Amino acid sequence: MNVLVINCGSSSLKYQLINMNDESVLAKGLAERIGIEGSVVKHQAEGKEKVVIEEPMKSHKEAINIVLKSLVDPVYGAVKSLEEIDAVGHRVVHGGEKFAGSVKITDEVVNAMKECTDLAPLHNPPNIIGIEACKELLPNVPMVGTFDTAYHQTMPEVSYIYPLPYELYKELGIRRYGFHGTSHRYVAERAAALTGKDLKDLKIITCHLGNGASVTAIKGGKSVDTSMGLTPLEGLVMGTRCGDIDPAITTFLMNKKNMSAADLDNLMNKKSGVLGISGVSSDFRDIEEEAEKGNKRAQLALDKFDYTVKKYIGSYAAAMGGVDVVVFTAGLGENSKDNRKEICSGLEFLGITIDDEKNNTRGKEALISKDNGSVKVFVIPTNEELMIARDTQLLSK
């Protein structure tokens, strides 16, 4: 059985075509900078050279069209026709309280996803576009949705409840949901395997750091707290999202700048974060390049990001009564040694220490903590696609 996994992020699209007989990857790729100048698809089929397709991608639908063409390309493709794709698994960010696990996609499920769009305005729309594009191009292929929110359903009430009138939770479902659950689950399981210990015996803090970013506290194999909230806007400073701010800023801006709710939503989701601070880009690579040239606002954006991650690690260590393992994953977490070092700097009192030589790594599993450190620090490339593929195979039978 071949499962195509589509993982639409806010400005990227990862994909893998997986042979579930042995979980081998027949092809994989990444469409980057969707809706941003310089968009590109990096595609590689098993046993073939990687190809880079530089082509404008104004939307996620255009990106999926390029991906499907790449998979069946006679030179660098992985299959002869789209008929060799037996099922498609989709990452979906927000399922609210409607979905506590993966489900087979039906029209009713898509409609329920759309009802959650207000809670994930940057993500659910491209997720749904990906589903509808695949349904159009692969009409007879079963599809499964895996939700970022599902993993965090183990959070205790004290973690997910907001200090608002309780009736708002009961009436409107206003609570912390958390996101990147598939990624946090995968790297936590891998970290346990790498330490040789049972996941149930570990206190793990996983840091999913990319254009969208979150930190999760995992105790006894279960998510007990996470930085994102009702929507993916809360928590860390991100590419274009502000993360934690004083909520009174919203009414202040309404009064001072005559901003509407839609204006504020756009400001906080699409014009803030490291983009807002730096004035350069939402892409950390662009910001790092400008910081190296002496751009102080670019450096401030990087410093602010690292500082907020550091604070969450410290707070989650306190919440769990300690920490055994810290994991860095996703684009920035896997590839930026400078960010990892800066985030861990000052956390030595928790037993978190970084070995500079070990930390000089990109995009592969590595233990980067010092040998005498009481906390093991790992870089573990996430594999949300494999987790989604397993659920897709199970539900497509």
Automatic annotation (TrEMBL):
Residues bound to Mg(2+): 7, 384
CDD domains: ASKHA_NBD_AcK_PK
Protein biosynthesis in keyword set: no
Keywords on record: ATP-binding, Cytoplasm, Kinase, Magnesium, Metal-binding, Nucleotide-binding, Transferase
Pfam family membership, one: Acetate_kinase
Active site (record annotation): 148 (proton donor/acceptor)
Reactions it catalyzes: acetate + ATP = acetyl phosphate + ADP
Gene Ontology MF term list: acetate kinase activity
CC cofactor: Mg(2+); Mn(2+)
Residue numbers binding substrate: 91
Compartment(s) where it occurs, according to its Swiss-Prot or TrEMBL record: Cytoplasm
Site label Transition state stabilizer, positions: 180, 241
Residue numbers binding ATP: 14, 208-212, 283-285, 331-335
Enzyme Commission number: 2.7.2.1
Cofactor note: Mg(2+). Can also accept Mn(2+).
Pathway: Metabolic intermediate biosynthesis; acetyl-CoA biosynthesis; acetyl-CoA from acetate: step 1/2
HAMAP family: Acetate_kinase
Quaternary structure, from the entry: Homodimer.
Record-stated family: Belongs to the acetokinase family.
Function: Catalyzes the formation of acetyl phosphate from acetate and ATP. Can also catalyze the reverse reaction.
PANTHER family to which the protein is assigned, alphabetical: ACETATE KINASE (PTHR21060), ACETATE KINASE-RELATED (PTHR21060:SF15)
Name the UniProt record assigns to this protein: Acetate kinase
Organism for this UniProt entry: Sedimentibacter acidaminivorans
Lineage, broadest ranks: Bacteria, Bacillati, Bacillota, Tissierellia, Sedimentibacter
Gene (name only): ackA
